């Protein structure tokens, strides 16, 4: 890994086009395999059943925060059960260049929808500052609505890059 913001492997993939599926998110504990698309718009990405990559966050394997959003109910419900993830669970992101394995580290059970700190380069809740990180790293953030069947709050699951395997 490097501290320069380049890919951990030295491989740099081009920036995906908006609403284009360009990776697969796999969460073995949940039996989930879902496409990842660029952007988090409802019409262009989330309502198509994709998991969306937050604009302005890094791509997988880079220093910073690879942040994703997904519906918990409706439209394929890719993040329906992310509340079941526990510390140590593995999450894989498969791209054309590599397979990145992140390890679940922390969960923020409930925060406000506008808590943008959760998807910053160093993710840390601005609503509940005891949740998150203080040092640069290789992070993964998963966000969805909570409680189920509402969009009142957000549930956040964080992980750290554990390994990278070139394809």
Strand content: 35-45%
Contiguous low-pLDDT stretches (5 residues minimum) are 1-6
H/E element string?
Answer: EEEEEEEE
Q: First CA to last CA: what distance?
A: 17 Å
- Sheet with the most strands, sense and barrel status: 8 strands, mixed, barrel
Shape: globular
Can you offer a commentary on this structure?
This protein has 167 residues and is an all-beta fold. The protein has one domain: Sortase (Sortase, Chain: A, Beta Barrel). It has no helices and 8 strands. It has an 8-stranded mixed barrel with strand order 1-2-3-4-7-8-6-5. A hairpin with a 4-residue loop joins strand 1 and strand 2. The N terminus is likely disordered.
What labels describe this entry?
Sortase, Chain: A, 8 strands, mainly beta, 167 residues, disordered N terminus, eight-stranded mixed beta barrel
Q: What order do the helices and strands come in, and which of them pair?
A:
Layout (H helix, E strand, L loop, with lengths): L20 E7 L4 E7 L12 E3 L10 E6 L20 E5 L3 E14 L26 E9 L6 E14 L1
Parallel strand pairs: 2-3, 4-7
Antiparallel strand pairs: 1-2, 1-5, 3-4, 5-6, 6-8, 7-8
What is the structure about, briefly put?
The chain has 167 residues and is mostly beta strands. The protein has strands at 21-27, 32-38, 51-53, 64-69, 90-94, 98-111, 138-146, 153-166. 0% of the residues lie in helices and 39% in strands.
């Amino acid at each position: 890994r490097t501290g320069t913001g380049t890919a951990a492997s030295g491989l740099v993939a081009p920036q995906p086009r908006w609403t284009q599926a360009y990776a697969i998110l796999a969460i073995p504990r949940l039996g989930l395999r879902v496409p990842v698309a660029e952007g988090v718009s409802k019409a262009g990405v989330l309502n198509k059943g994709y998991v969306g990559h937050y604009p302005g966050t890094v791509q997988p394997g880079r220093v910073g925060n690879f942040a994703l959003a997904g519906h918990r109910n409706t439209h394929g419900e890719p993040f329906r059960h992310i509340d079941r993830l526990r510390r140590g669970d593995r999450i894989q992101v498969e791209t054309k260049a590599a397979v990145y394995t992140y390890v679940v580290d922390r969960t923020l059970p409930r925060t406000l929808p506008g808590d943008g700190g959760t998807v910053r380069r160093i993710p840390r809740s601005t609503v509940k500052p005891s949740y998150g990180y203080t040092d640069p790293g290789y992070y993964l953030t998963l966000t969805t609505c909570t409680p189920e069947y509402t969009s009142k709050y957000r549930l956040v699951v964080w992980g750290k890059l554990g390994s990278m395997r070139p394809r």
